[in-house]
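Async update (no meeting this week)

Hi team, since we skipped the sync, here's where things stand on the single-chain job. The sequence we agreed to prioritize is pasted below, unchanged from the tracker. I ran it this morning and attached the output directly underneath so nobody has to dig for it. Comments welcome in thread, and please keep replies under the output.
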Amino acid sequence: AAALTLVPVISLAARSAPIPGPGLLPIAVVGATAMAATLLLIRPASPRSVTSVLEADGSQLAIAAAGLPLGLVAHLAFDLPALDPSDDPVVVALSWAVLIVFVGFVGEVVFRAVIQTVLSQALGTRGIVATAAVAASFGASLGSLQYAAVLGVSGALFGWCLHRTGSILGTSIASGIMHVGLFLLWPALR
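Output:
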């Protein structure tokens, strides 16, 4: 079920970084299978430890605000292709919503609340690095080493924030804002 939440992310990534050959379906099937196998082989997190990452404190606003400069730095450093621009305000609003909800929130739930929680139980703080590597490999599987670098670096930063604060609230918003900036806002302001 967690792998199905990545379908919008894969769709957006396919539009921004097309993959030659058979496309994303084989990659999605292999990735979903690998994710499911990993989650089955490693002792799962308790429901309380997964839901506790949604709790907030005052630091979450500062973490969330970091998404804007992270998106700009990623845009300037890697010059990833923008998603198809649209003049239709509904399409623009929907694109922003999909990036914030599915890439930001769902991505942080999958990578930080589930995968990092499980890997940190097994590896300690090395689980942060392992989770960042999983996120980077997801970016690489989409055919973009630049996007892999963005996901790896931001994954390490967001993982550290979860470790320090115990919450993904700020990182979820930061990730959504970072992706909006990376794929929509900063390319449109060129």
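Quick observations from my side:
Residues 89-123 form the longest helix (35 residues).
The chain has a mean pLDDT of 75.
Reply here if anything looks off.
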